[in-house]
Write a structure and sequence with these properties.
By secondary structure, the protein is mainly α. The protein is 66% helix and 0% strand.
Length: 146
């Protein structure tokens, strides 16, 4: 270190990432829940890889391709969640779209596929995230009023 230099970074690109103090708790909570959804997709991807590596997959089923597909989806979901946690307004719209898509998946799990043990928790989580993302505080933040 040179004499007279400060410890503070001079290049703003090298600054540390901090949670946005301007983002309300509803946004940060929604972001954490969306990240949880993404982490669930990562766990599913790992289970697919284990299944593929153990040789338990069926003929004609590309388990590794499916795992890669879930890796891409998980990255997008975690990116949306991280954006909300960091207070990025642009992450709200994709997160809402994601919750609406997952509500459709939950409906299918509850009804036609006969797996309510999977569908009901997914539906409840989606509704909680949507309530947080449409909360009055969140709406004011998204419009730049807060």
């Amino acid at each position: 270190m040179h004499a007279g230099s400060s410890c503070a970074p001079t290049d703003p690109r090298k600054a540390t990432v901090r949670l946005s103090p301007a983002a309300p708790r509803t946004v940060v909570a929604a972001g954490a829940l969306v990240c949880l959804q993404g982490l669930t997709a990562v766990v599913f991807m790992v289970l697919l890889l284990v299944r593929g590596l153990s040789g338990a997959s069926e003929l004609g089923v590309n388990v590794f391709g499916e795992a890669a597909y879930f890796a891409v989806l998980a990255a997008g979901v975690i990116g949306c969640g991280a954006g909300l946690v960091l207070g990025k307004r642009g992450a709200r719209g994709p997160s809402i779209a994601l919750q609406l898509l997952l509500l459709g998946v939950a409906w299918y799990a509850i009804g036609p596929s006969g797996r309510p043990a999977y569908g009901v928790p997914v539906a409840v989580l989606c509704v909680v995230v949507l309530v947080l993302l449409f909360h009055a505080t969140t709406n004011r933040w998204a419009q730049g009023e807060e």
